[in-house]
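During the second year of the project, the team shifted from modelling isolated chains to modelling whole assemblies. The rationale, set out in the original proposal, was that interfaces cannot be judged from single-chain predictions alone. As a representative example for this report, we include one of the complexes processed in the last quarter. Its constituent sequences, exactly as entered into the pipeline, are reproduced here:
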Amino acid sequence: MSELVLTGISKQFGAVKVLQPLSLKVSDDSFVALLGPSGCGKTTLLRIVAGLEAPTEGELRLDGKTLWANGAGLPPEDRGFGMVFQSYAVWPHLTAFQNVEYPLKVSKRLKAQYPDAPSRRAAVERALKLVRLETLGDRYPHQLSGGQQQRVALARGLVMEPPVLLLDEPLSNLDARLRAEMRRELRDLHRSLGITILYVTHDQREAFEMSTRVLVMEAGRIAQDGPPDEVRGNPAPGFVTEFLSEA
Amino acid sequence: MAELAGLPLGTVAGAAARSLALGTAVAAAAGAFGMALAWLTSRTDLPGRRALTGFFSVPYALPPYLLGMAWVVLGNPTVGLLKDWFPSGGIYGLAGMVWVLATVAFAFPFLELRAAFERLDPALEEAARMSGAGPARVFREISLPLLWPSLLNGMVLAFLFSLAAFGVPALIGNPARQYVLTTLIYSQLRVGGMDGLNQGLLLSLILLVMAGAGLALSGWLARQRARRGGTAVSGGKSSRPALVLLGRARVPAAFAAWGFLALAVALPWIALFLSALAPVAGDFRPTAWTLRNLERVLTMADFQEALVNSLLLTLGTATAVVAAGFLLAFLAVRRGSRAASWAITALGAPFSAPGTVVALLLLMGATVAARAGIPVDGPLVLMGAAYALKFAAGAARGIANGFAQVHPSLEEAARISGARTFTLLRTLWFPLLKGTLGAAWLLCALPMLTELTMSVLLTGPGGATLGTVLFQLQEYADQPSAAALAWMLLTVALIVGFATRSREKEA
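Output from the structure prediction step:
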């Protein structure tokens, strides 16, 4: 059971308040979409969870384990989250297989779980199969299309069997047709694997088609929080109504 | 004993081996310093990293032989200011040459790597952190393999720079009788006559082959890398990279980085300053301080001649080079002229070749011309030609980049308005590229003003420059005057260096 708890998390860059103090519980098996226009603080929130950014104030816990409190916490490499980036961030000097294998070789937790090459190979092949790249493991990123590179990045996150999988605008560099395909696949993966997902996007379609819970963000605040049908059917007056009507 | 054009084979081989060792060691040291400093200033929470980044581009603007003189003041085994801190031979010898050159040459890999870190998508490193790798591992397994081509480029530049260096080996190698190719060429030429010139040409051929081999090796390594698919791509949004928190290492790392800057720039300046005030070499008591050295230099006839010569040469040559570069770049980039592109490419040869080789070929050319009845008048003409050949490619390339960055529609709109080529250059391109042209001019003028390597070979009666006068003062053991002049020049270079240092954009 994974439960991610944020308590009074805020972030300030110099004089600019990017995140107002906010509290949030992400519970097991949910697919939470952080939806909002650019600059609303959704990516900053995700990076704070990841450990790539330090919050100005607040606490962060995972299943009772403290990730951040009192101005100090675990570095990203010790948190065990998987993450998929907008720019794919697949390493150009490693093959698709090596990219996916990397966490199993470097993470303290996973090294113990996969002590030898055969056990790693099996896990990597499973992950590549999940994203339908099982035949392309030997390719280098420059031999793969953008969509395929993004699948490698996804497999690299899935192979870690993370308590929460973090995705930062993973589809916005893909063309419209691929995006539709990936939306379906991500939703199916979430259902079949039962993983917990925190997903940042500015695209309403992504949020409403895949998630089980939508958080609409505005100017560092959560403007509305609820299941997708509720948010779409009954948007909060003001910002959320306006934002949703723009599409 | 075996001989090569009248030189003992052992002497030639020794100098060649020492040149190679010097270039390799400086490249290695510069690579290590440059990489460490580039990583610290790009990816960590090092205190003052913005300011440091600007300061680290300053040594680039300093003539290395001025720093060499400062290190002699510090590390002379008998009268050095800090002689007790050095091994028994003082600063003299190969290790001393490597150190002094590395304090300048680290800037080549540093600047290459800074730019590369900026281009590298931070998500590539962040993805590795998320996979469970600590900062050291991320550096080793992700950053280093991806930045390897930039590191290699910077190290090759450091290698070529050290191979071509003359002042520092002359100041720090010669007293220990450790000659490299450039200093051996100089001493052969001083013997004079056709013999000296021939020996010099032979030695410079070896120097040229070594420089070419370095370039070829790096090109080959880069191609190997590319074949394995290891080219770094950047993409996505340029997010603020997650900084590596140095934690307990933060204070020691800051000490190391700022300390390196102090050692590379501040300490040499202080050494020259104290030495300039000392009545005789080695007497550093504050009570004995005097301005006599400065006064003597300023009233010296040689200095006054050199100042006028250097200023005239620099102003004239830098302006001519930038004007020619402007026209060549315009023709190459905007008119697609093959001849102009070819000329810019061809100028790359003297640009990359050691200055000693360029000067010798010019001397040779002048000798041949004189025999054919065409007298080449005076050392200033030869020096002007040498400076122009040496620095033209850098200027032309910079200006060509400037042309390439402006959208063609600007020129098309002006032509439709009726502007012809000359009007275009005057009313559109010159105002648009003023900044680029100014930067190119400075980039030429700074090294010309204090040029030593080529000037020392081409100088003659009436042809003293700041570099050659300084070198003479040092050679004829008037150390206090030499220090006074070196201190003044270093101060000017530092002011210009700080004023033009690369500034971090506000993120």
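The interface with chain A takes residues 121, 123-124, 126-134, 137, 141-142, 145-146, 228-237, 239, 242, 245 of chain B (CB under 8 Å). Residues 229-237 of chain B have pLDDT under 50 and may be disordered.
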